[in-house]
C-alpha cells in the first residue's frame, strides 16, 4: 500500500534532505502472512511550489529497494478455540464465589425496621370454660 507524505520545508539551506522510516514486524506478519519474500520500493521526491518559479532542484527524486524475508514460523496465529469457553467458565466461577462470600457475610440481608415505640400490653387469655 502506498502512502503519500507532504512536509513543508521552511528553507532549503542544506544541500541534503534525510527521511527515516520504520517497518514494524507486526504489520508484515498480519497483512502478508502467506508471503515468504517481499520487496518494498520506496520512492521519494521533492517539489517546490514557488510563485516565482526561480527554484530549481537537481535530482529531485530518489528510489530505494528494501527486501524482506519473512519467517512464517514466527507468525502468531489467533487464540485457540478452547481458551474462550474456559475463560468464560472461570469468570462465572469467580462471580459465583464472590456472590457466595458476600451472601455468607450478610451483604444481601434486608435491614429490619426497629421495633415500634408504642407500648405493648400483655393480654391474658381466659379459657372458654371459665367465661
Automatic annotation (TrEMBL):
Record's protein name: ITA7 protein
Annotated TM spans: 81-103
CC terms in the record's Gene Ontology section: external side of plasma membrane; integrin complex
Subcellular location: Membrane
Pfam families named among the record's database cross-references: Integrin_A_Ig_3 (PF20806)
Stretches assigned to the Integrin alpha third immunoglobulin-like domain: 1-68
Membrane topology: Single-pass type I membrane protein
Domain of life of the native organism: Eukaryota
Keywords, comma-separated and alphabetical: Glycoprotein, Integrin, Membrane, Transmembrane, Transmembrane helix
Species assigned in the record: Erythrocercus mccallii
GO biological process: one example: integrin-mediated signaling pathway
Main location: membrane
Gene Ontology molecular function: integrin binding
